[in-house]
């Protein structure tokens, strides 16, 4: 993991097309802005994990074997 120190209004570049800028910093957290192409997905890690956990719970709590097989096959697909 790369760890950088940035101040408000300072940025980092990721590749040629993504810029992350520190907008504000305070005791409650840091606000960042991300400038990236529209076709790039940007998600908070905790949201992705919550969806994965909910999908796994749905698979395990379902009593319908067919539904379980369908959900397992969807979850097993690589991300595009």
Automatic annotation (TrEMBL):
<dbReference type="GO" id="GO:0006109">
    <property type="term" value="P:regulation of carbohydrate metabolic process"/>
</dbReference>
<keyword id="KW-0963">Cytoplasm</keyword>
<comment type="similarity">
    <text>Belongs to the CsrA/RsmA family.</text>
</comment>
<keyword id="KW-0678">Repressor</keyword>
<dbReference type="Pfam" id="PF02599">
    <property type="entry name" value="CsrA"/>
</dbReference>
<dbReference type="GO" id="GO:0044781">
    <property type="term" value="P:bacterial-type flagellum organization"/>
</dbReference>
<dbReference type="InterPro" id="IPR003751">
    <property type="entry name" value="CsrA"/>
</dbReference>
<protein>
    <recommendedName>
        <fullName>Translational regulator CsrA</fullName>
    </recommendedName>
</protein>
<dbReference type="GO" id="GO:0005829">
    <property type="term" value="C:cytosol"/>
</dbReference>
<dbReference type="GO" id="GO:0006402">
    <property type="term" value="P:mRNA catabolic process"/>
</dbReference>
<dbReference type="GO" id="GO:0048027">
    <property type="term" value="F:mRNA 5'-UTR binding"/>
</dbReference>
<dbReference type="GO" id="GO:1902208">
    <property type="term" value="P:regulation of bacterial-type flagellum assembly"/>
</dbReference>
<comment type="function">
    <text>A translational regulator that binds mRNA to regulate translation initiation and/or mRNA stability. Usually binds in the 5'-UTR at or near the Shine-Dalgarno sequence preventing ribosome-binding, thus repressing translation. Its main target seems to be the major flagellin gene, while its function is anatagonized by FliW.</text>
</comment>
<keyword id="KW-1005">Bacterial flagellum biogenesis</keyword>
<keyword id="KW-0694">RNA-binding</keyword>
<keyword id="KW-0810">Translation regulation</keyword>
<dbReference type="GO" id="GO:0045947">
    <property type="term" value="P:negative regulation of translational initiation"/>
</dbReference>
<dbReference type="InterPro" id="IPR036107">
    <property type="entry name" value="CsrA_sf"/>
</dbReference>
<comment type="subunit">
    <text>Homodimer; the beta-strands of each monomer intercalate to form a hydrophobic core, while the alpha-helices form wings that extend away from the core.</text>
</comment>
